[in-house]
Amino acid sequence: MGISDITDVERLKKINTVLMSRVERSMDQQGNAFSLFQTAINLENRIRLRTEELRATLRRLEESNIDLVAAKDSAERANQSKTRFLAAASHDILQPLNAANLSISALAELQTSEEGKKLVGQVERSLETMEALLKTLLDISRLEAGVMRPDLSDVALAPLFFSLRSDFQPLAERLGLRLVFRPTQAVVRSDRTMLRRILQNIVSNALRYTARGGVLVGARPMGSTLRVDIADTGQGIADDQSEAIFEEFHRGPVGAAGEGAEGGLGLGLAIVRSMASALAHPVWFRSRVGKGTVFHVELPLVAAKADAPALPIAPSAEDGRKPRLSGAKVLLLENDVRVRQAMSDLLSGWNCSVAAASTAREALGSVSGTGWLPNLILADQHLDNGDLGTQVIEQLRDCIGTPVPAVMITADLSGEVAALARAAGVELMRKPVKPAQLRALIAHLLA
Questions:
Q1: Cα–Cα distance, 399 to 396 (Å, whole number)
Q2: Which SMART domains is this protein grouped with (predicted)?
C-alpha cells in the first residue's frame, strides 16, 4: 500500500512525527560529530602549541645548564689556581718571615736596655700576628680546595703538648695567666699537623678571652678513645652563641678578651670544626658565662700509661732559664741567603759552631776529611741544584758513620715532606721558626 492509499489522517500524523523525529536525531548526531571534530582540532592545536613551548623551555634550560657547567668549571679552575698561587706565594712569604723571626731573636739577645727590649718585643708580636694570619689564610684555602687530606699516623701527645706550651708560654706570661699542660704518655691516631692546629687554635682562643686565672690542658682515657680537655677561667660562652662561635669571622664580645690580648679574625674555631670533621674527631664544649669554658676533643686511643713523667720545663720569657748550647757543632743546610745568614747569626749568638751549605756537595765537603763533625744537622727540604734535605741528611750520616740528630725546617706544608721526615727519623719544624722552640728542641736532641 502506498502513501496515497492511506486515508487515515491520524495515522499519517503519527508517521510524520516518527519520520521527523528520526531526521532530528540524525541531524543532532551529525552536529555532535562536527562539534567533536572541532574540539579535537582545537585540542590538537593546543597540544602542538604547548609542545613547542615545552621544547623552547627545554632548549633554554639546556643552554642554561651548559652555561652553569661552564661557570662551575671556570670557578673550579680559578679556585685551583688560587690554591696553587697561595701555596707558591706562601713559601716565598714564609722565607723572609722566617729570616725576620730569626734576626729579631738574634737582636733580642744583644739588647741590654729596657727600651730596646720593649721595641724588640713589639716587633716579635707583630711578626707573630703576621704568621698567624698567613697560616689561617693558607688553612682556609687548602680546606676550601679540598687539598688538605688527613695523613693518619700514631701521634704521641707528650711532645705535642711540650711544643704547644713552648709556643704559648711567653704569651701567657705577658697576659699574667697560668698555662698548665698535664703530663701524658698517651699515643693517639690522628694527623699530627692537623691535630696540632686544632689544639693550637683552641688554646689560643682560651688565652685570648681569659682575663684572670689561666688555661689547663689535659688528656683523659675514655675506653677506646682519649679526650683532650682545654679548660679556661674566661668569660664563658652564652647558650645562644653555641653554634655561632664555629662560624667564620665570628668573634667574642667586645671587652671579653684579656688585657693585652690581640683580637683575631674569628676564623680559629671555624678551622677547628673543619679539620676535626675531616679527621672524624668529635669536638664540643661546656661553658658557664662568667666562669669559664671547657673544650673537649675526642681522639682514637692507641696506647696510654698512667705513670707519665712531667713535661720538660719550657723556656720562660721572664726567668731567663734557657738551654745551654755552648760549643755545639751545627751543620746548617739552607739555600735562601737571608735565612741562612739569620740562622747562622742566631746559632752563633747561642755560642754554637756553625757550618752552612746550600747543596749536597757543599755539605759533604764540610765534613769529609776536615775533622769537623757536626753534633746536629738543621736542614731545609728544598736546596739548590734540586737537592732534597732528607736525602742529604742520609748521605751525611753515611759519611760520618753515625745517626747524627737532625731537624727538618721547611716552608713546605705538604704531607709528603712530613712523611719523608718521619721515614728518615728527622724532627720536623715548619717555617717560620720560633727561636725559643728551636732552642729547646736542639737542647733536647743534644742531651
A1: 5
A2: HATPase_c (SM00387), HisKA (SM00388), REC (SM00448)
